[in-house]
Amino acid sequence: MAGRSIFATLTRKAGGRERSLFRSFSSTTEVVYEDPSSNCAEEENGETGDDLKSRIFSLRLPKRSATNVLQKWVTDGRQVSISDLRHISKQLRNSRRFKHALEISEWLVYHNQDEALDSDYATRIDLMTKVFGIDSAERYFEGLPTTVKTTETYTALLHSYASLRLTDKAEDLFERMKEANLSLSTITYNEMMTLYMSVGQLEKVPLTVEEMKLQKVAPDLFTYNLWVSSCAAALNIDEVRRILDEISLGSDSGEHWLRYMNLVKIYITSGNLVNSGSNSVVESENGITQREWISYDFLIILYGALGNKDKLDQIWKSLRMTNQKMTCRNYVCILSSYLMLGHMKEVGEIIDQWKQSAATDFDSSSCNRFLKAYSEVGLEERAAAFQLLLIQKGCDLIDESQ
């Protein structure tokens, strides 16, 4: 359970791009409106600027009302556009100020019904889940007019179920979407695969990909990473290589895809991953399985391929803060991604962390395989830079050719 909880947390943090459609939601029936006269003075005293965003962001405590700020702004004869409200709501969500984002979203839909988009309703579902819980989000969704029960709003509720690992509810909703003849998106299928990874039902990931292809829904890099990750976590390395071949034959041969294929190949070689005919899961002493650790590594590989250093920093920091005993493979994986992107400062810092770790011994054999793997994919200069850094750090590399 410990491992799956960490995976779900990291996946939700890491999967920002594909979930950006459903990050902001609120409830018409659930938001409690306060008497504007009760705290307007308090809100004005906290102002740091005379624009709407500054006034709302000055509300440090969740119990203070963004609704009241909006009402006073309008009462004073000032204009507010729907695009401004969307922008403020998004920034509040990014700051994890979900209750205030919920109030902004509520105001947006209530006062701009003719201009509200499906994404505005979807945002409310997500925020309601975060602020009031899944039951409130479900009631809101079921009460929506048929015209706004679209792929986007359905997927928002599906995302809430997946976030909470409510597998049965997610699968039932997924079937409802198909019965409603909705045009399912790549994001919808990715949500289901992320759920299956987080609850350990790896065998359902390739089945979802197969259905996706039958429905002519194009997989993206997130899809392929979930698929590859599920096979690697099940130690089906032959299938991983077959999927990489499929990617290489695809029409999209852009930088991100090439970097992804190289990182996976390097990971397999340097991590010494081989096929396993056993379906048993070997538990480590801290309750995290080898397969779960591999799943975490593929989050790092994904954002290394996308060139997203901020996400790499965030995931690695989260892993180090779990107080779980990491493996040599974890260190090699993050080193590979930073090295691929040319962040040598971070490469050096992680070598130091590995050498200083009381739980995971520095492994020269892993580093040798790492250097070999980088050379095999044609990145000899990166390999040479890494080898030089190892020498500078006083790391003894064993010549395994002897």
Automatic annotation (TrEMBL):
The gene is LOC107797993. PPR repeats lie at residues 150-184, 185-219. InterPro entries: PPR_rpt, TPR-like_helical_dom_sf. This is Pentatricopeptide repeat-containing protein At5g09450, mitochondrial. It comes from the Eukaryota. GO terms for molecular function: mRNA binding. It comes from Nicotiana tabacum (Common tobacco). GO terms for cellular component: mitochondrion. Keywords: Repeat. Belongs to the PPR family. P subfamily. The keyword Hydrolase does not apply. Transmembrane segments: none annotated. It holds the Pfam family PPR. PANTHER family: OS04G0450200 PROTEIN, OS12G0527900 PROTEIN.
